[in-house]
Amino acid sequence: MHLIETRDLTHIYHGGVRALESVNFIAERKSRIAVIGPNGAGKSTLFKHFNGILKPTSGEVLVRGEPITKENLREVRKFVGIVFQNPDDQIFSPTVEQDVAFGPTNLGLDETTVAHRVEEALHLLGIEELRDRVPHHLSGGEKKRVAIAGILAMEPQVLVLDEPTAGLDPQGVSDLVEFINRLPNEYGMTVVFSTHHLDLVAEMADFVYVMDKGSVVGSGTVEEIFARSELLARTRLNIPPIPKLIRSLQENGIPIEMAYTYEDAKKSFLEAYARRV
Fold it and tell me: What is the reported pLDDT for 238?
């Protein structure tokens, strides 16, 4: 049973705009899934179907094998948590602590359980010192972490992140990548995220969906997608610098193994160098 599955999902906004066209998507347990594509590809619209924010025009969305209904919507939103691209869209309480507590409180949990979940979420994101701060006085990176903490306090099994690195400085991006990579193994969570930064996909994803004009136009492992240069070009996405460089070296006769991350590239270069000396 898949955690999330869409079957021929189509969504038409009022006015006739077809945002999604027959999208088939699967999220498995403890996986890291990247959804990439140009602006307007339908990524955010797809995500809003995962916990019932939007309803399909046709097709269906299944969560743990069951369609989303009015009767199970509350449980679905406990199971699938979404963090929007702009944290101001979901931060509204007077203090950080109150904001993180909002979700579990509205699940009807008792005060002791809510306090424990808030403490855990603040600790996991490393923002304990922000608990008494006014959220709208925080930096963009701090707001992003508060928004994620608010969702994690509800203890979802699937965390959906829409452009999670948008507006972050390089250290913030690095910290977020490290955090996301811990979630499947340490907490058993599935992470689904969108990004325009393909260099991060190799660092953060096990599987990739490519979207364009509301449709899934490609899917596969990181290696399979990055090998399809024509697909990336057609969807106006650039091959990341590391595999692009190594592919160029291979084409020029240098025997070096393909790599997609900095650490793997370093290993490939050292092995290639050792063979030549």
Answer: 86
Q: For the chain, which ranges sit under pLDDT 70? A: 277
Is 168 contained in some domain? yes
Instruction: Take residue 256 and report the two structure tokens written for it.
Output: 């070096």
On whether the CB atoms of residues 145 and 136 are closer than 8 A, the answer is no
pLDDT, position 89 = 86
Total number of domains in the chain: 2
Q: Residue 137 sits in which domain range? A: 4-229
* Residue 193 structure tokens: 């995220």
pTM over 0.85: yes
Residue 115 CB contacts under 8 Å (≥ 6 apart), including other chains: 101
* Number of Cβ atoms within 10 Å of the Cβ of 21: 18
Residue 271, classed as helix, strand or coil, is: helix
Residues 100 and 146: their CA atoms lie apart, in Å, by 7
Q: What is the pLDDT of residue 191?
A: 97
First to last CA, the chain: 52
